[in-house]
Amino acid sequence: MTIELRGINKKYENKVVLDNITLTLREKFSTILGESGCGKTTLLKILAGLVTPDNGEIMLNKNKLFSKSEKVNLRPNQRNLAMVFQDFALWPHMTVFDNVAYSLKGNKEEKAAKVMDALRMVQLEEFAQRRPSELSGGQQQRVSLARALAPRPKVILFDEALSALDAVLREKMQTDIVQLISQTDSQAVFVTHDQHEAMSMSDQIIVMEKGRVSQIGTPKEIYEEPANHYVANFIGKINLLEKDVLIRPEFVHASKGDSKHLHRIFRVLRSQFTGNCYIIHGEVDGNPWLFYSETPFVPGEQCDVYFEEQQLIKIGGY
Ligand SMILES: Nc1ncnc2c1ncn2[C@@H]1O[C@H](COP(=O)(O)OP(=O)(O)O)[C@@H](O)[C@H]1O
Ligand SMILES: [Mg+2]
């Protein structure tokens, strides 16, 4: 399946929210990653048909969902997409069963089979007759997931769908969602501001900054070859060596191994205990640096830190 956005623009009261977005989403699981306010929800709503862009075209395979020039604008229910929201968006007065059945087509038996199928996928078939208020947050989110899965849409859009869940449940749901999607014929477009979530779930990440696409790539490409300083900073921690040359903290060590040729003098400011290691915060040539260590360092202490040439990230150097 291919979702194509071409030249999508959106302004609200003269404020540019999306600036000429051109994107092709082909992977099973794509994630749009960016800070709050960068336009992620607006982009997802434009895909879903809930917001109309000022310009551009949207294609799903060979179907035109939107074209400004050709005056095409399919309604949300004609687009073969489903959406999962952060706040679940369930009807409080309806049972789980009726919430999932709500937008399904077909006769009563067909609908019931689709509902129970979807509830089975999210392991909630015993909860069909409950109301949302009688479920935990995680269960409510699984109901909204079942509601999205039930019509077997071509694409499922997730808008910060796990942000309301606590950390442990959230990690479990990240794994569950990727697995569920892999069992369906649907493609996922997932929106988040959380880089760890994006990294751990996605085949492809689209990094957005202020209404524009900064970089598209696999999690590994984006981490190892960030297109600019914004992406490098946003996806993990960095130490600045010189203009446009960076090193990730995991490649910096206080001991000189066999192959570590480069070194700098590191002035320790603080050792932060995290459970499995210490993060040593400090300074190199006036830039804030950090690295990981099994033992703490004393504030004020100076030490040599070592790293390898081949681990350097050169912005714009690829
Ligand atoms: N209906 C609207 N009217 C006016 N401004 C809006 C509207 N929706 C979103 N915006 C603005 O567009 C920008 C992007 O919003 P949004 O797409 O919600 O970002 P994100 O989901 O990345 O946090 C924000 O500055 C927001 O205030
Ligand atoms: Mg949003």
UniProtKB/TrEMBL annotation:
Any Pfam family the entry gives: ABC_tran
UniProt keyword terms in alphabetical order: ATP-binding, Nucleotide-binding, Transport
Residues spanning the signal sequence: none
Taxonomy, superkingdom: Bacteria
Gene Ontology MF, one: ATP binding
InterPro entries listed in its UniProt record: AAA+_ATPase, ABC_SmlMolc_Importer, ABC_transporter-like_ATP-bd, ABC_transporter-like_CS, Mo/tungstate-bd_C_term_dom, P-loop_NTPase
Domain ABC transporter span(s) in chain numbering: 3-235
Protein name, as recorded: ABC transporter ATP-binding protein
